[in-house]
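#lab-general

N.A. 3:47 PM
ok so I finally got the sequence cleaned up, no stray characters, all 356 residues accounted for. can someone with queue access submit it? mine expired

B.Y. 3:52 PM
send it over

N.A. 3:53 PM
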Amino acid sequence: MSFRRYTPATPPQIPSTAASAHPSTTPQTLPSGVKPASIPCISTGTSSLDTLLSPSSGLPISSSLLIEEESTGNYSGVILRQYVAEGVIQSHRIWIAGVGESWWRGIPALTNKPIKNDVAVQDLEEKMKIAWRYGANTPQKNLRESGMEGFCHVFDIGEQMALPGNEQVVFSPEPASQGNPYEPILSSLHSFIRNTSKTTAVRLVLPDLLNPLIYSPDSSQPQFLLQFFHSITSLVTQHPYATLLLSLSTSFYPRSQPLTSWIEHLCTHVLQLCPLPQNPTLAKQPQGIVNVHKGGLMSKEMAYRVGRRGMVLEEWSLPPLEEESPRVKQGFVIEQDVERVRKSHVSGINAKDLEF
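B.Y. 4:20 PM
back already:
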């Protein structure tokens, strides 16, 4: 019996033009302000919030972030406005629904003063190293190595940014007062998406959703609201570089209501801002605490504080009590011993009386 050596078949040669046209071999060029990662991310304009949202420190594209706020404050508006301001700096196209151009008042401008890295932001980044082995690759180091140092900017909420031209920012009409309230908003959104290139990053903003001063009572009807939400989240996932930020007052629509639960279910990230009672005697007291209900990396209690440079998230801990129990050391109350020493200098008690 004779044996013949096996020779594997040679695969056919692919022409260079066909190989270059294959999507897996062509390098993908990301738009400005989009950070490369397993899922590319954009910045919300709040660096401490970026660290909280994903291991790559940013809001992943094709995702939505719901900011719920308890009480009648407008701290969620600070986050949304910084999100818009960051989009203007990164040359992204922005679509704002329902509130009109008057909402642009309060969009912060870039600060003119050199800002050092915030200590609270650095501490937060250090504590949330999820995907970085041995702590060698920190988010800031990754940004420097990837050339993304301008990924997130610092703003001054005391200054207002000028409204850009060239239709970079588009405002939708107000909700309809009769019939389907979301019909003019959806029509504006479809036109906005059609006129936007697939290679351009898109930021969609829904401020004060279901606010009674803006939306009619029919806006909270499930047949209108859920249909609108399914449509807008579908457009976010279909566009290659789209993200959505929206705010909702849980004072009007508590989380226990089924309608609010459905909105949370359709969003990829859900944060809630809960105010704290303010104490005028405490300096730099946070305005409230942050609850992450969906899609975050928070491992400890977080608080939010708004200053000249906008929103900052930081680790939160209870302040010390004003009347603490006396400290005890080796069975003796230190405060009482100190009081005895003070009185001994006045009354002339012998030092032996103070020996333990």
